[in-house]
Amino acid sequence: MSMEYFAGISDALRLTFVQVMILANLSIGIFLIGMYINLKKWGMGSTGYGLEPSGSIFAFPKMLAYQMSEHAHIHNQSVLETFFLDILFQRRILQRSPLRWFMHFTIFFGWMALFALSLAMFLVEMIFLIGEEVGYAHSLPEFLEPVVFRELLAVPNDVFSYILLVGIVIAIYRRLFMTKVREATIAYDSILLIGLTVITITGFVADGIRTGRFWGFDMPIEYAPPAALFHVVISLLFCIAYIPFSKYIHMIAIPLALLANKGGE
Amino acid sequence: MAKREPSINTENFTAVQLMELDSCSRCGECVNWCPTYDASGEDPGLAPRDKILRWREYMNKSYGLRARLFGPKQISEEEIEEFKDDVYGCTTCGMCATVCESAINTVELWESMRANLVKRGNGPFGKQSAFLKLIGEYKNPYMEDNANRVNWLPEDVKVEDEAEILYFGGCTAELKQRKLALATTRLLNKLDIKFTMLGEDEICCGSALIRTGQYFINDTAKENAQKNIDNIKARGAKIVLYACAGCFRASLIDWPRLTGKELPFKVMHITEYLQGLIEKGEIKWEKSIDKKVTYHDPCHLGRHVGVFEPPRAVLEAIPGIEFIEMERIEENQRCCGAGGGVKAGIPDLALGVASTRVDDALATEADLLSSACPFCKRNLSDGRDAVGAKDLEVEDVVVLAAEAMGIDLSDTPK
User: Fold this and answer.
1) If you placed Cys at B322, which of A199, B269, B292, B379 could pair as Cys (CB 3.0 to 4.6 Å)?
2) Could you tell me which chain B residue has the CA closest to the CA of A91?
3) Cβ of A49 and B102 within 8 Å?
4) Which residues in chain B have their CB less than 8 angstroms from residue A251's CB?
5) In a mutagenesis test of the A interface, which of B19, B32, B93, B263 is the best target, namely the one with the most A β-carbons within 10 Å?
6) What are the pLDDT digits (tens) for A12-46?
7) Choices 3.40.50, 3.30.460, 3.30.1380, 1.10.1070: CATH for B127-276
8) In the prediction, which pLDDT does A222 show?
9) Where does B15-123 sit in CATH, by number?
10) A6 CB within 8 Å of a chain B CB
């Protein structure tokens, strides 16, 4: 049963599905508070050039909407073009450096895909759990059983994990071995990469222990639940809670800047 | 105990600009391309991404989570003064915006930082502080009697009192580089295009005040923009022509923003207008200019508003010109170094940037380095002199076009 996935190795370490849910909600709560603080901070600006600072939490969405509707003298491109080519495809990075684009795109693509798969797994577990309580679980199609669904996700999970790993390896290489990049690196940059790396490695290790693959370092199967738990906890904290307070905010701010400036100059 | 006040405020920033501070991924592209960072010997303070980082830190110290919980963290005045020096060491060329992977509108961010620092009492920089007084008193930054804008025009130049086309000469061409103004007026005369000018009713377009963060003081830039608009309307103009990239950019982008209204006329750079005439076959060339010519895109004409092709079309149409491009052109062009108040505030830095651009031109083995802005011409000429490239001529596209049309400019007054 899905709940066992989160079980600890001993009663003392045991963490249930409910506790993980609490942690997830706590992370979302911290994220929301952080975003509120950011919106308040951004709202210290005005809603038009040369106007007085607003101080309203609505100043940012108002100014964003104004800029998005304003005629641009150079790239007066549509929101759809900005969304697909600049936000999803990250054309501006590709124009500057194909290597950096490849690195960033693999991290972005791997990360978002794994996030989507985790979310899908979570939803299936919820549907099944509620189904068991309410009594409709037996009428669900077979693929919506958590065990079956997890197996279905096994290959895509592997593929996107490798994609993410490739991007992270390039990022680490650049930070460590490219002099110009290394010299310009500050804690603000390092924390992002360290967080990503830890999440990815713990994900591989947790999977390796469970499946017996080599990246489990032959650790006993009993270690699988706490390893998975550690991965989940750190992912929730880094992927959600820490976003507004760190360089992870670029995941939100860059798409907004691209939209505001219609893909840029 | 009195609550500590933040060391900085958010005056003159828009909400989107404050968000843009958080969207810098510190990729370093801006640093690779910044002309003043390069010309300064890679002074880290001038690196665009580090300016963003510093102001973001100031924002977080003043209004971030920690500031909300425990009160703002103080920023020393020395640090803010140093930041001011760095933010004024920028020509607002916009190269950083072009290469920014996050699409941050950096030019306007720097201008907002400058305006904020002026309001705070730190800016502007050096001689730039004279702009406001000079423009207020003389209506131009050159301390010239405003009547001198057009009273020197030779008698053969026919300027209408009213016309559908108006030539907005600009302070630099009318008061300092009169060859360009004379070339433009005679060229229009020769094409039988009836045009008018504002004459002594013309007021500085405001570019110098806007770029240096002084536009809001006494609403001078806004009032001057409105007066220019009203005077242009009063002369019945439907199309306004510019041979100065700075004035053109100010009219196209800054005037509507300052006045809060769309312009009641169309604005065009003269090269756009000439390109149209060339395509219609309405220009008769009378003289061949047998020179190898390269072209420098003015930042305010190219990157800022996207006019890249018309000046090239004019040059390529002139008989005898062998047109050759420099390595860095159009949106990737290297700035001449004059803009953003740098020429007035930090002339050595402006000269350093200009010298690099002249080197770009010399690499093409061109005889002549052309541009479409009198301010670029001035700084590129200084750069040419600084590198000792005596044989390299620096001239405006409009002057070349006028000469190729057989117009004599030898009587240009000093």
Assistant:
1) B292
2) B101
3) no
4) none
5) B19
6) 455 567 777 888 899 999 999 999 999 999 999 99
7) 3.40.50
8) 87
9) 1.10.1060.10
10) no
% residues pLDDT > 70 (chain A): 93
Domain segments of chain B as ranges: 15-123, 127-276, 284-404
Reported as a single tens digit per residue, the pLDDT across B169-219 is 999 999 999 999 999 999 999 999 999 999 999 999 999 999 999 999 999
Residue A37: which of B16, B19, B65 has the nearest Cβ?
Answer: B65
List of chain A residues whose C-beta atoms are within 8 Å of the C-beta of residue B215: 50
d(CA B202, CA A213): 78
Query: Would you state the pLDDT for residue A23?
Result: 87
Q: Is the pLDDT of residue B52 over 50?
A: yes
**Interface contact A112, partner B, CB < 8 A:** no
Same fold yes or no, B15-123 and B284-404: no
The predicted complex's ipTM stands at 0.92
How close does chain A come to B112, measured CA to CA in Å? 9
Distance from CA of A256 to the nearest CA of B (A): 8
Spell out the CATH class of B284-404.
alpha beta
pLDDT at B20 over 60: yes
